[in-house]
Amino acid sequence: MTRAAFADWQAGALSARQALHALLADLGEVENEIARLEDERAALRDQIAQIVAHEGDMVIGDRRALITAPTVVASYDRQALDDLVARLAATHPDVARQIAACRRESMRAGGLRIERVRPAHASRGGDDRA
User: Fold this and answer.
1) What is the pLDDT averaged over residues 17-38?
2) How many other CB atoms sit within 10 Å of the CB of residue 45?
3) Which class for 19: exposed (0-12), middle (13-18), buried (19 or more C-beta within 10 A)?
4) Residue 68's Cα: distance from chain center in Å?
């Protein structure tokens, strides 16, 4: 792995494009390993689930294995609900206000996003700003 590419970029020894190329390759290797481990984890969990489904809940050492019952999760289409509140505001303003008062918003942090580029666009790779 070439994680030293970041230090080389900071020192001015690599362009931003060269450093990103190396670091994205490293990230790809790490993500491939994570995918392999997640597949292995899923297989192990499936095998454990089959044993527990057959034998029942068990405590082994400091771990308890059990199968939980399915649950129902309710959710609402935010845009459809907003549209309903807007329509109700004209005819039933009290109901619209009560529904609107139930709305909760929170910020989701932004961050780095890495996407695969379609081959036709791959040649258009930005500049080498350092």
Assistant:
1) 96
2) 11
3) buried
4) 24
Residue owning tokens 């020192």: 11
Token output for 113: 């996003």
- Tell me if the pTM is above 0.70: no
Question: Residue 59 — φ and ψ, nearest 5°?
Answer: -110, 125
Backbone angles phi, psi at 60, to 5 degrees: -125, 110
Number of other residues whose CB lies within 10 A of the CB of residue 14: 22
pLDDT beyond 80 at 121:
no
Locate the DSSP E strands across the chain: 58-60, 63-65
Question: What are the tens digits of pLDDT across the range 63-75?
Answer: 999 999 999 999 9
Contact by Cβ (8 Å): 84, 98? no
